Amino acid sequence: MVVQTLKQQLRIFLAQFLAVSATLAAAGTQAATCPQNALGVSRVLEIGASGGLQIGLKTYPRSLALADHEIVLTFDDGPAAGTTPKVLDALAAECVKATFFLVGRNAEAFPDLVKREITDGHTVAHHTYSHPDVTMRGLSDSAARADILRGFQADDQAAYGAAGTTPKVPFFRFPGFADTPELISWLSTQNIAVFGADLWASDWTLMTADAERNLVLERLDKEGHGIVLFHDTKQQTAAMLPEFLKDLKNKGYKIVHIVPGSALPPLRTAPEGWVSATEKIIAEVFARMRRTEKSQPPDASKPSLPPAIAPAKP
Questions:
Q1: Which terminus of the chain faces fewer neighbouring Cβ atoms within 10 Å, N or C?
Q2: Rounded to the nearest 5°, which phi and psi values hold at 245?
Q3: How far apart are CA 145 and CA 124, in angstroms?
Q4: Which domains does the chain have, with CATH numbers?
Q5: 113, containing H or E segment
């Protein structure tokens, strides 16, 4: 049993080492071609998750201990044919690296875009296979685990041409940030880091590119640093990104690129009086969905929503 456990840990370490090596090699290749005035990457931060890790102050009472004006750029829900290439072009123009939390079925549909993310030196992380509207909280625990595992497999197959029993990059984000205590516990046993965010672009709300750009800059100027959430599936985000990156450079912001590592990163705890911003929103969304469900004829093909939303423990 001990030998088997050691072999499993060695396989996980080797897979993560290869993923980090590929990311850093791609970043090093591009560094030689970056214009001198590009925003670029200030530093690379390795993140280990032995025993589990949950970060992002919108959902959890801790986050990365970033310095003033340091930010981590993350993008959810892609890849998408009409928008992800524009996002990648904008990032490449400023030699910036980001983390993409992929939806597995989208990775299956557009493997060339996933491979480009790898080639460009970005980190490819995970966001379930199907991104169900009812979130993981609307599924049984076994169905939720299956969707997450299928997402790991689909993303790695698209990115690397093969998938093992564990994801090469052990970074995961819950759709809608709707975790459960059971899934958090299970992911922790798999040494998976769960990411929330510190700042939202709120690009799920329709607005102009300029309005989104100004909103995110205002929030950044107020907070000073943090993990920022965008969606590379949104036209307004793709449109505003080139000018937004120039704004970051002009305002003195620095990009931190996160990659898998072996040790827990330095963390900062939430300020006194912290509450989860996501729990209230999740409850409101589920309440609206229940009202809609009650007003429509039952559909046996769709999962029913749980009768109540219990706040997930950080």
A1: N
A2: -65, -35
A3: 20
A4: 9-295 (3.20.20.370)
A5: helix 111-119
**Dihedral sign of CA atoms 124, 125, 130, 135 in order:** negative
Report the predicted TM-score, pTM, of the whole model to 2 decimal places.
0.85
Whether 76 is a known active-site residue: answer yes
Cβ 243 vs Cβ 88: under 8 Å: no
Question: What DSSP character marks residue 95?
Answer: T
Q: What crossing angle do the helices spanning 141-160 and 111-119 adopt, rounded to 10°?
A: 70
Catalytic residue among 122, 131, 225, 231, which? 231
> Within the chain, which residues score under 70 in pLDDT?
1-32, 289, 293-314
Beta strand residue intervals within 10-95, DSSP E:
43-47, 53-55, 62-64, 70-76
231 labelled catalytic = yes
Structure tokens at 107: 């990775």
